[in-house]
Design a protein that fits this description.
Distance between the termini: 41 Å
Shape: elongated
Structural class: mainly alpha
Strand content: under 5%
Oligomer: single chain
């Protein structure tokens, strides 16, 4: 890993030339008045004249365009430097309002006055993400589904209608096209070091954003449309993101030392790391994470390319190839179908892979990188809790990968807890983890049933029901038989020779099953398809439970107030009788679901099997639970039909038991 000291750039020679040299080849000074009207508006026609096109197909000639726009960008940069903050605000503040984040663009102006390379790069990253979000809002004036990728957004007909195709081509020279400067991707994916991003390109994008505001105002006046800004994404359930302990000043001081020693850090990127830690200290949590995520990516890319023996992938790819990004580095196989060696190098996959999948990739996770880079998050309200996790995780990687003797650091009283947390991390946002959470929440809901207010038992006995007759005995027997068959696959501490229904189908059993460690990395497609059905079943069971709770409380209140008609009273008593038997059935289904999570995952990894037939069975259980939701709803209240449906479902579950046992035996 001493390689990190020798690497001077992560830009391939062609990309380095385009970003660092091409726009400086024309030395002629450019008069700012050519593109700036007397009242301070952008003269777009003069700007668009600098975009060149290929004779063959009239597509943008990015090389000639960058070369031509270079002096224009320099002129804009010098012009902004000549303005005071007050002058800039008076002249441009109005034209940034369309972005819904005027303050950010005023901050970028401040950064340009001092040309601090790290701050310029950070400002450019924030500017491009905010600009993308604002352009998406404009797109929705005409279109319906906003493109996820910036390059598709900039190439859309909808934006061309509002701003004009020539204007959009100017933007594509700077961002959104792999053939242009591609500043957004080069920065957000960690390829560019601070000194490799010319400040004049940041200044030009600031200038163009104001110009877009001027064009948009004209369009809105002509069409009488109103620009609506989409709400920001808000992180909910922050406690689910709580992995590492809170970082204090001492921990951050050690982090600064680690950054200087660890071979995980490319020396050219050191300013980004130090700026990220400084931002955290100053409570600028969004800035901290924006700076740090690309550095985690480039550090892991160094590991990835070294262990997989593909050093050329460390550099930015050409337009005809793909970047080596988080998605590929976390994949099971390389693009040549060989096994990715990175997880093995990370030693404990949960150390990095599961954490990164949780925080960056899983659809139900916070997806921090996507949401920050696409402008979906209010930067001013970015939570400290999230930044704390990213910094702490980064520290564990810094400790793991170093040429120095890091034993003293690893055993330090503030570092050791971080390393321990990392080594025992379990995925929280993989579908398996979410299903476990659903099952436990559903069981908690069902456990509330015995606490519900109810009428005296003698009233219930007046209703001819299942209890005490042959049908009831058969009902209970079927549940007991199924439990008996499944007990050999349950933790021994939860098995019982007594009453199987009340002593086995418990919250304790589910907690123990859900606590079993399952590696969620690289789940096969059959597992993911089965999980979709299992989660739907769990959701339906939970809805049934909530409906039972709501109906029971309402009917009891009506009973006590004597507002129920005769038929309603009869139906209420039928409900009370029915839920005695419905509770163990729902608990049985939850236990089955949890066993499936463990065993199906193992089977799919060890032995291929005809999961389509198995999926068919699960879908029949899903159909049963969906019907339960309908019959137990306040609108239907069909309790006799509920019990008939449940009886048929239990017969089917018992018949399929042999198949399920075969499946579980394959897993053991």
């Amino acid at each position: 890993m001493a390689l990190s000291d020798s690497i001077t750039t992560c830009l391939s020679p062609p990309v380095h030339y385009v970003i660092c040299k091409l726009g400086f080849e024309k030395k002629d000074a450019y008069d700012i008045n050519n593109i700036l009207s007397e009242n301070g508006e952008v003269c777009w026609q003069a700007v668009t004249e600098h975009v060149c096109y290929l004779e063959s197909d009239q597509s943008v000639d990015y090389i000639k365009s960058i070369r031509s726009l270079g002096p224009v960008c320099e002129s804009v940069n010098l012009y902004f430097k000549s303005l005071t903050k007050e002058q800039f605000v008076i002249q441009y503040e109005l034209w940034f309002r369309w972005t819904n984040y005027t303050e950010l663009f005023l901050q970028v102006f401040d950064v340009l006055q001092y040309t601090q390379t790290t701050e310029v790069a950070l400002g450019l990253m924030k500017l491009t993400s905010c600009l993308e979000r604002a352009l998406g809002d404009v797109y929705l004036l005409i279109g319906k589904d906003c493109p996820f990728l910036l390059r598709d957004l900039l190439a859309s007909e909808q934006l061309a209608v509002v701003f004009g195709q020539a204007v959009m081509n100017v933007l594509r020279v700077f961002i959104g096209s792999p053939y242009g400067l591609n500043l957004r991707n080069v920065l957000w994916h960690g390829f560019a070091s601070p000194q490799e991003i010319p400040a004049k390109y940041c200044a030009m994008l600031l200038f163009l954003t104001a110009g877009l505001g001027q064009l948009l105002q004209t369009y809105l006046l002509q069409t009488k449309c109103i620009l609506v800004h989409r709400p920001y994404v808000i992180f909910v359930s922050l406690e689910e993101l709580d992995v590492f302990p809170d970082l204090n000043h001492e921990t951050l001081s050690i982090a600064e030392e680690l950054v200087k020693l660890s071979s995980f850090v490319l020396k050219t990127m050191l300013p980004f790391w130090m700026a990220a830690l400084t931002a955290f200290k100053h409570s600028r949590y969004a800035d901290c994470v924006i700076l740090l995520l690309p550095q985690l990516e480039v550090g892991l890319r160094l590991l990835f390319t070294t262990t997989n023996k593909c050093p050329n992938r460390l550099l930015t790819a050409e337009p005809s190839a793909l970047y080596t990004t988080f998605d590929e580095m976390l994949a099971k196989h390389l693009d040549n179908e060989e096994v990715n060696q990175l997880p093995a190098v990370l030693e404990e996959p949960a150390m990095a892979s599961e954490f990164l999948w949780d925080f960056l990739n899983h659809q139900e996770g916070p997806r921090i990188r996507d949401r920050l880079s696409h402008g979906e998050i209010n930067l001013e309200a970015f939570p400290r809790e999230v930044a704390n996790q990213i910094v702490a995780f980064a520290m564990t990687l810094l400790c793991r990968f170093s040429d120095e003797d890091m034993c003293a650091f690893k055993e330090h009283m503030v570092i050791k807890p971080l390393m321990n947390c990392a080594s025992c991390y379990r995925s929280r946002f993989h579908p398996i983890s979410r299903l476990k959470k659903q099952v436990l929440e559903c069981m908690k809901s069902i456990h509330l049933w015995p606490e519900l207010p109810t009428v005296p038992e003698e009233y219930v006995r007046t209703i001819k029901g299942l209890e005490g007759n042959a049908e009831a005995s058969t009902f209970i027997l079927m549940i007991s038989e199924i439990i008996s068959q499944l007990q050999q696959y349950m933790p021994q501490s939860c098995c019982s020779s007594g009453d199987p229904i009340n002593s086995v189908l418990t919250e304790r059993l589910l907690n123990e099953l859900c606590d079993m460690r399952i590696c969620t990395l690289y789940s096969p497609r059959p597992v993911l398809e089965i999980l979709v059905v299992l989660r739907k079943i769990s959701t339906q069971c939970h809805q049934v439970s909530e409906q039972v709770i709501a109906s029971t409380e309402l009917r009891y209140k009506q009973w006590m107030n004597k507002t129920l008609r005769s038929r309603q009273r009869h139906n209420y008593l039928r409900m009370l009788n029915s839920i005695k038997f419905l509770s163990p059935v729902l608990r049985l289904i939850l236990v089955l679901i949890t066993l499936e999570v463990v065993n199906v995952h193992l089977v799919c990894k060890k032995n291929p099997f005809d999961y389509q037939q198995y999926l068919k069975f699960l879908k029949s259980v899903l159909q049963y639970t969906e019907n339960l939701v309908t019959y137990t709803s306040p609108e239907k209240n069909k309790w006799d039909e509920t019990m008939e449906l449940t009886d048929k479902a239990l017969i089917k579950i018992r018949k399929i038991s042999d198949r399920k046992l075969m499946l579980m035996q394959l897993a053991t």
